Amino acid sequence: MEKPISRGSLFWYGMTMLTLFFMSADVSAQNKDGDKHYHTPSEINNKLEEIRKSSKKSTKIHTLATSPGGRSVQMIEIGPEVDNEKKQLPAIFVAANLEGTIPISSEAAIHLAELVISEQAAQDKTWYIVPNGNPDAAAHYFKNPLLKDSRNDLSHNDDMDENTDEDGFEDLNEDGFITKMRVKDPTGEWRPVEGDSRLMKKADPTKGEKGIYKLYTEGIDDDGDGKYNEDGKGGVNVNRNFPHLFKDFTETGGAWPGSTPEVYAIFDFVYSHPEIAMTFSYGATNFSKVAPKGGRKSSADFENLKIPESFADQLGADPDKTYTMDEVIRMVEPLAPAGFEVTESVVASFLGLGAVVNPQSEDLKFYNELADQYKEYLKEKGLDAERLGPEAAKDASFELWSYYHLGIPTFSMDFWRLPKPKKEKKDEEGSGLTADKIEKMSSEEFVALGEEKIGMFLEEIGAPDQFTAKRVIGMIEGGQMTPKRMGTMIKKMGNAKGSDSSSDGASEKDKALMAFNDNVLDGSGFVEWESYNHPTLGEVEIGGEVPFVRNTPPGNMVDSLLKAQVPWTITLSEKIAKLQILNHEVQSKGSNVFKITVWVENENYLPFPTAMGKKNKQPRPAILSLQAKGLKVLDGKQRTPINSIGGHEVKKYSWLVRSPESNTIDVNLESTHAWNDRTQVNLGGSK
Amino acid sequence: MKLLKTTITTVLLLLLAQAGFAQPSNIEIDVPLRFDHYYDYSQVVEAVKALHEAHPKMTDTEVIGESEEGRDIWSLTINNPNTGKPLTKPGVYVDGNIHGNEIQATEVNLYLMNYLLTNYGSNKKVTNMVDRNVFYFVPSINVDGRYHFFNDPNTPSSNRGLRIPKDDDRDGLFDEDFPEDLNGDGSINRMRKKDPFGKWKTDPKDPRIMVRTEPGEMGEWTILGQEGIDNDGDGRVNEDSEGYVDPNRNWGSSWAPPYVQRGAGNYPYSGNVTKAVTEFMMERPNIIMVFAFHNTGGMFLRGPGTKEEGPLNPQDVNVYDLLGKNAEKIVPDYRYLISWKDLYSTYGDFTEFTYNQVGAFSFVGELFMSEQETYKAHDEKESGDNESSAFSESTKQKRERLQFNDHVVQGSLYNEWKTYDHPKYGEVEIGGWAKMSSRLPHPFMLQNLVHRNASAVMYAAAQTPEVSMEIFDTEKVDNNLHKVRVRVVNHNAIPTMTYHSVKNKLFPKDRLKVSGNDIKVIAGGEITNLYRDQVRYKDHKPEIQFFRVPGNEAVEYEFLVEGDGRVNVEYKSRKAGKCSQQTSL
Hints:
heterodimer, A: 687 residues, alpha+beta, Aminopeptidase, six-stranded mixed sheet, four-stranded antiparallel sheet, 19 helices, B: 585 residues, Immunoglobulin-like, five-stranded antiparallel sheet, 24% helix, elongated
């Protein structure tokens, strides 16, 4: 059985051997790195255990859940309060690889855990790190054949027939990868991309294009229903099972938010740990670089509410006009039973307004500012090469849930994307040669191009150093090679420079993939289409991109990528709101009546809480309380909630109290997630 | 001295305490069950056990989960083992009391269990529906709520939610400022204080009622809210009482977070009981009919719960309409309504889950109408007038209900206003409707309520799919080839699955399978027109066909079978059981 071939190296090898026959070459998949840069879910759990053993006093392992496939979802806790159920210090929650298809994110989480310990980043806070949020899917990366699938192992009858999980993928050509099958079919919708015939695209009839192929995933029709691989093993993508913008009845989202145990366990843990002040998701998105996206259509515009006709009459409202939330509250209040508090949430649910779907503009300010800082930081680290952008956060993902439902600063990092393909040079700027042109040349014409032009062209297509222009000219002159054959082979290599029409029709992402495959991976990122005799489809070609190539850097790149990027998590973690009592003042009003004023400062950059947190009221307020013997609060609340303080903002709180003059009043600032502070106010002495 | 006096008064009042009508004490729980009183939590458990002991073969009990405070949530299943195992029959699921204060919902459950079991074998209709269906009951879902409603002083509307603490007043303390039953009468009533600047004055026709002052009038009363004191000294009274997670906003279908839907809980199924019931139901995929009983208002509600979900498919609406319109007739004055449109939007409620995820036709039964507490002559007009709203009843209705209280139930539903020396407000008056009133009937009306509502369930249970199958034609086409025609008939109004679950691929459709040792199915498909012999053939695996059988309809299939000998045709449905027939070619 033929193995996938590295076209780049083979071409030159073939040239060297003066033969035009392709020969099989053994190429190790870039993902199956011998150096073990990537670790299986159980190895990751072992790593956590090693970390725990190395610093027993400040670490603890929690088993959050067992996946449907029987794998344990583990979390390491690092911090000075591991033995306390109730924490005094704030915490950072990091969930990695919830999609299960991003192996580098699990490595990053382990790297972070080690860094937190070595950098002593857990002295004044707790870290909760889940390196493998979706271990069932993550395990695919280490199996043969290689399959990229975000779903966990929950059985699900995808095709609604009489059996479950009966028609999965097969590695028919035994190359170790699940790729694609293409079949020539007059009703097919697919055709090769002009510029790079390895890539496929949907024919666009408006451009006069006609489909040539049908495209399938690699495998057979196990259950004989005419469909291929439509009911393999797999149930829920953990990172599509969170409640913000969850939709029922999607293919991988699960039955309801939290229907899968990995997610339910995160709900359970996060909501019972109000000390969590910030979250990170290590995966496909990067809120550290690109702020959460807005622009969604929303029904929850609290400034422009419409009153449905059915209620308008009772409320005395005009169904054609819009009202602000405050106005609606005032309309509803007189109708509500005595003692029933009419709040935004009451009105919102009453009118069926639905959830907030766009990031709050105040929050975008800090996201954008921090993104700029991060880009500067990456430049310093020499990681500013242009890469494809991170993915946008998906509906029902962890990131969106954390931002919208928890109302705390939520960041994410993706660590690696394919390099952006270089803009193709105009012909005039380079050699001006393409494979198409060369194909049409006679040997004489080719030789007449001269060494300089040919050399430039060889460089453009990434030919190894030993293939000098002189040598190639020699081969042509000697008749071992013709320009036609050479052009054809270069095109087969799929180099972007291969053909006249270049890669027209291929997306930037696909171009990036092929460029990386050709220039860096030596062709091991793409399986050349090769014919295969399929039991039901007949003559097919099997080929396509090797799974994981788009988001998984070669193993030898991992360490340097993580070393440069992971520390930013710690930098951001130092920006969470920290409340402290800045100052206080006592003013005697006579007759043992005092005015007490306390200034509270958020001494850090991030607001307490986010604007979204102000809206959803999910983050708990800090409480400023006065305590003293014989103290009577005349005006103000003995326990005053501090609902919000912006970054670096100072707020003033005052009380009128009656108290013996000799008294000392304890002022306590308590917060579940922004540290605590206290001071004493001496009524007699200080002024 | 003053304190002592207050204490003595309190003790005396406690002895007289009644949170409404008298409940018999120390009753024997015996089958047949009685419905002249309400069952507290432990009596519900006893009643479930008693029914099981009296009918051990036909029933099964199970503790399906444990509440936040550790109480067992009981279920009872009625199934006749002689007619098949539970999962082979259409499942009718009934529950109640998801809101802790909505107690008579449990009595409807108990009544129906009792009625089915005691009439089985003697009443033909009951016998038939018990033989054909399996009935699942979870008579009291919010068991903590039920316990506290009976045992603690409450208003008719308090104690609705789950016992999950919430810091309502955001002072860092949880559930620290409850209402108190200051006068010890077992109810939480309202407090009012004489106040010429108040916004309320005494109704001239009934001094117990207060009406709003008109512009230009001086007032007489200030309403101080619910009975209680300022436990946490923050200047507000009763602002942080128990909960609040509303178990009927905590389900995973179209769930929305608390800032959108009050009471949603932090995440779907964060409550023990919602999680337990979900697990119970997901293990019983045969459930096709759901009734969840609540109070109050006299309604049979169907989804959708929010406008965003869009209208239901007409195929399902037809079924709902049939059941809903009949329920309206079975229970006088109750209305069949669409939840979001006719009432208000709710996110994450139970029937949303059962329709979307269980694939069951689902109703909420809102039991009891205070309008039925009448006191009027036969020729008097309806008491309702346009002063009433979705939020509160009109003064006229209030007067009539007080007359009903005075003359029909001998004053047992209303606590007269009495003065009380409040630590913060000074002299106030406390009074109003008793805990056991306003949302639930006096026991003399209970029997009627439970029977009629149980009958609405029985009407629907009689309509669950009843499927038969016949090989109605076998024709020789050729020496070795036969045409085999099969008809699957649903004799009842409810289809074998909702259209919604077909559309959303909730689970596989009903399956028809042709098999035999010496045969091969060459082709097969649905007969789209029997008389014209039109068949829509299936491309692959013709021996297995998938479909649903609508209510009171038949579907017909044709198979071209090669070979001879025995042919077995089997029909299997997730919710409508299975049947098979053999023939020889």
